[in-house]
Amino acid sequence: MKSATVRELKAELQERSPKEILDLCLRLSRFKKENKELLTYLLFESGDEQGYIESVKQEIDAKFELVNLKSPYFIKKSIRAILNYTKKYIRYSQSKETELELLIYFCQKLNTFKPSIHRNRKVETLYYRLVEECKKKTRLLHEDLQYDYFRELEDL
């Protein structure tokens, strides 16, 4: 089955009644966990962006505490999983400030991680790539915000 384009979906949804749209959303939320998480963000957490950021930061902290330290391979794998988790929640928000704040926080946690990431070349490369990505994204923001975020990036 070929999926419809966003334009076709939008046109079709405009023709539906609110009850039908509600039923479609509920049915969609049953199929994938990510759909349910996105609906949860849109309905309950999008109004309090700072609270959302804090809850994601707490989850990142919890995941860093559970990193498997048995070998560099497991450390790298766990860190990549935490980064994927972080980027998933960044996608839900679609806010550049939220994206930068969470990525900078992830980099800070990675920089203070024990054992040091600077002993593992692949994790160190991942870290430096993320810092460069943050710098590029910071340049797209308003000048006042750029100054604040560049100060945070200098500490890294």
Q: Would you spell out the secondary-structure blueprint of this structure?
A:
Blueprint: H1 6-15, H2 18-29, H3 33-45, H4 49-65, H5 72-93, H6 96-111, H7 121-138, H8 143-155
Approximately how much beta-strand content do the residues carry? under 5%
DSSP strand count = 0
Structural class: mainly alpha
Largest sheet geometry: none
Q: What is the number of helical segments per DSSP (H or I, 4+ residues)? A: 8
Helix content, binned percent:
over 70%
Stretches where pLDDT falls below 50 for ≥5 residues?
A: none
Mean pLDDT: 85
- N→C terminal distance: 48 Å
Order of helices and strands: HHHHHHHH
Query: What gross morphology would you assign?
Result: globular
Gyration radius from CA atoms, angstroms = 19 Å
Description:
The chain has a domain at 49-155. With 156 residues, the protein is mainly α. The protein is globular and about 55 Å long. The chain contains eight helices and no strands. Helix 6 runs parallel beside helix 8 and helix 7 (121-138) runs antiparallel to helix 8.
Q: What keyword list fits this structure?
A:
156 residues, mainly alpha, 8 helices
In a nutshell, what does this entry contain?
The protein is globular and about 55 Å long. The protein has helices spanning 6-15, 18-29, 33-45, 49-65, 72-93, 96-111, 121-138, 143-155.
